[in-house]
Amino acid sequence: KVIILDFGSQYTQLIARRIRESGIYSEIHPCTVSLEDLKAMQPSALVLSGGPSSVAGEESPQVDQGVFQLGLPILGICYGMQLMAHLFGGQVEPARNREYGRASFEFVSDCPLWEGLGDKDGLTVWMSHGDTVLTPPPGFEVLGRTSSVEIAAVGDSQQKIYGLQFHPEVAHTEEGYRILHNFLFKVAGLVPDWSMTSFIQDCIQEIREMIPDDEQVVCGLSGGIDSTVVAVLLHKAIGKRLHCILVDNGVLRHNEALEVVESLTKHFDLNLKHVEAQDLFLSRLHGVKDPEEKRKIIGHTFIEVFEKEAKSIPDVKWLAQGTLYPDVIESVSFKGPSAVIKSHHNVGGLPEKMDLKLVEPLRELFKDEVRKVAVELGIPDTIVWRHPFPGPGLAIRVIGTITPERLEILRKSDRIVQNELFASNWYTRVWQGFAVLLPLKTVGVMGDERTYEHVVALRIVDSIDAMTADWSRIPPEILARISNRIINEVQGVNRVVFDISSKPPSTIEWE
Ligand code: XMP
User: Fold this and answer.
1) Mean of pLDDT values over 68-90
2) Which residues form a coiled coil (predicted)?
3) Computed from CA positions of residues 34, 61, 46, 196, in that sequence, does the dihedral angle turn out positive or negative?
4) Ligand 1 proximity of 73 Cβ (cutoff 6 Å)
5) Does the CB atom of residue 227 touch ligand 1 within 6 A?
């Protein structure tokens, strides 16, 4: 495996994903990892990531210099290259010309990293750096330059150590993928062995070894891809000793619980209990306006209902959760846990409260890998490509107080949005698309009569990770159709508006 030492670059995850796409397993660890721990991981190559710091800075992140004595092939990217150059005795200085964005890179001498790029003199690459290497360390050859940086790539072919000033992991770098490939296969001589098929086999084996024959596992199913993949993997490993629980909290989409139950029991014969707790949730939400209050009520009630169900199963010792690799990295990042706290993504506190051990089979995977696993496991497309749906569900999309009538208006409107996105093939092209019911009425006219009815907002966004988003440029004909249908088919709505804000400064949800 390849270990990536993280110096705080925004692209570190991208490096890991690119390497995995090449069929090599990779993991990210903070640059502060101890040499002993690193050795214990038995890496076959190292990548030093970029980072926002200057090597001359007082608090510049460092790495145990012993890593350079392990005889491993190393690729340093941006800060990673500057740090290596500095540690190996080169000269690094803050650049007179900072370089951000696109740059023209020219090859200066041949090296294995450039293999297969033979007919080109140079590449368009993506830069983002403040420091530059002024003289290469002894033993290192200059491999490339740009118009503003004389030393934009260096290497020591004896030691198999290379440094790139640009970012080969980003899509804007021409042939970046091939350069990473060359590092993995030509320099480090690795053999691809990471695939979703091998992941599934290993994962099932590990689960079997981890969970003793007389112990049961409980898993909350939401109908989303993560919990479904967790459930199917565990089911393959331990069969009926897995107990899935789907809680209908009364704020799911139209027919959602039934569709999920049907498609999962039909395809996989899961041991699945559908708990109808709509009334309990809705009675507790009665009269509540504040969104955070809604979230708390739904979260606590979920835990209560889930715990009661789980306790009724004898010998339950484990809770299965769909934690993904980005959550794991976030909590071990050398910058400390990220400021963005996603407490709503897990069932906080449940394992400790019930004294359960955790089984998290997706801890190593990125979202796109989870999708590949899902496809390979034969999980239906409707689940694989399902848009993210918040735990508090429609409760935070009925703005203001929730009543059964208002929920029904939203449900019907939302169903039209989903149907039309599917029918026009836009569903999989956008990140998320849904309806929001606003807490106001406006004037309209139907036939000869004046109406005074609800407003529905459409929120349809593009995003890659929900951290930032922009409104999707849906063709006007499709918007017109959605609007017409909602106004004609959903009683109580006389106006539909389209949300054209980006995140930031807005958010994806309205509450
Ligand atoms: P925002 O509104 O913060 O949403 O831009 C980002 C992503 O998170 C989802 N979201 C939630 N998911 N519980 C969840 O499980 C929540 O309370 C919650 N709030 C927002 C939202 O749908 C989007 O995908």
Assistant:
1) 95
2) none
3) positive
4) no
5) no
Binding site residue list:
222-228
CB-based contact 167:78 (threshold 8 Å): yes
- pLDDT tens digits along 335-366: 543 333 333 344 456 667 778 999 999 999 99
First to last CA, the chain: 42
Predicted TM-score (pTM) of the model is: 0.84
The protein residue whose alpha carbon is closest to atom 11 in ligand 1 is 390
Measured CA distances, 330 to 53, 236, 413 (Å)? 19, 29, 37
Does ligand 1 come within 6 angstroms of the Cβ of 347? no
Angle between helices 225-238 and 256-268 (to 10 degrees): 30
Pairing of strands 122-135, 91-107: antiparallel
Tokens 């109406």 belong to residue: 451
Q: How many A from CA of 390 to the centre of ligand 1?
A: 5
In this structure, which residue's CA is closest to atom 19 in ligand 1? 390
Ligand 1 atom 18: residue of nearest CA: 390
Which one-letter DSSP state was computed for residue 391? T
Enter the ipTM.
0.99
**C-alpha atoms less than 13 angstroms from C-alpha of 507 in its C-beta half-sphere:** 5
Residue 304, SS3 per DSSP: helix
Maximum CA pair distance of the chain?
87
- Provide the pLDDT for residue 332: 63
Closest protein CA for atom 22 of ligand 1: 390
The domains found in the chain, sorted by start residue, are 2-187 (3.40.50.880), 196-384 (3.40.50.620), 398-498 (3.30.300.10)
466 CB near ligand 1 (under 6 Å): yes
Task: Looking at the CA of residue 509, tell me the nearest atom of ligand 1.
Answer: 2
247, 290, 294, 344: which to mutate for ligand 1, most atoms within 8 A of CB? 344
Distance CA 248, CA 381 (A): 22
Distance CA 478, CA 482 (A): 6
Residues whose CB is less than 8 angstroms from the CB of residue 439 and which lie 6 or more positions away in sequence, other chains included: 399, 400, 401
Q: Are the C-beta atoms of residues 194 and 51 closer than 8 Å to each other? A: no
- CA 462 → CA 1, 70, 431, distances in Å? 33, 44, 5
Residue 32: both structure tokens together: 């502060």
What the block records as the tokens of 437 is 């019911």
Distance of alpha carbon 459 from its chain centroid, rounded? 21
Residues annotated as catalytic (active site), given as ranges: 78, 167, 169
Q: What is the per-residue pLDDT across 238-276, written as a single tens digit (0 to 9) for each?
A: 999 999 999 999 999 999 999 999 988 888 989 999 999
Instruction: Assess whether the C-beta atom of 136 lies below 6 angstroms from ligand 1.
Output: no
Best residue among 387, 507, 509, 510 to mutate for probing ligand 1, ranked by most atoms within 8 Å of CB: 509
